[in-house]
Specification:
By secondary structure, the chain is mostly helical. The chain folds into two domains: 63 residues, Arc Repressor Mutant, subunit A (Orthogonal Bundle); 48 residues. The chain contains six helices and two strands. Strand 1 and strand 2 form a beta hairpin. This is BlaI/MecI/CopY family transcriptional regulator.
């Protein structure tokens, strides 16, 4: 079961995902402090919690750690969507309602994604008979 990130967890993960490199607590803290007043120990605790939950991996660097995302935001979003869809008592109706909420750009992205999945499905690819 995927749990939605809390506000501060999301703020931390957004920076880690956007920067796409190993980061220190200090780097995240300094960036967060541009928006809000926050203590080093708070950011350290949040990042340790994200490590414990499996969202971040870390490597010791001196007396501190460098943290890196285990997966990307797209994978997180997909897991949330899958979780929401899987608990529906009527998955088809949930999808229809979801599609109805989409903007034109989102529907086009969905069409593109379906084309990619169809092209990369089982049995497709080089060496496949009939290709």
């Amino acid at each position: 079961m995927v749990r939605r990130l809390g506000d501060l967890e999301d703020a931390v993960m957004t920076r880690v995902w956007d920067w796409n490199r190993p980061v220190t607590v200090r780097e995240v803290l300094e960036d967060l402090q541009q928006e809000r007043s926050i203590a080093y120990t708070t950011v350290m605790t949040v990042m340790d919690n994200l490590y414990q939950k499996g969202w971040l991996r870390r490597e010791a660097e001196g007396r501190a750690y460098r943290y890196e995302a285990v997966s990307n935001r797209a994978a997180y979003s997909a897991a949330l969507m899958n979780e929401a869809w899987s608990v529906s008592d009527n998955p088809a109706a949930a999808l229809v309602a979801f599609f109805g909420m989409m903007s034109a750009e989102q529907r086009e992205a969905l069409r593109d994604a379906i084309r990619v999945v169809q092209l990369d499905g089982p049995g497709d690819g080089p060496g496949t008979p009939g290709r």
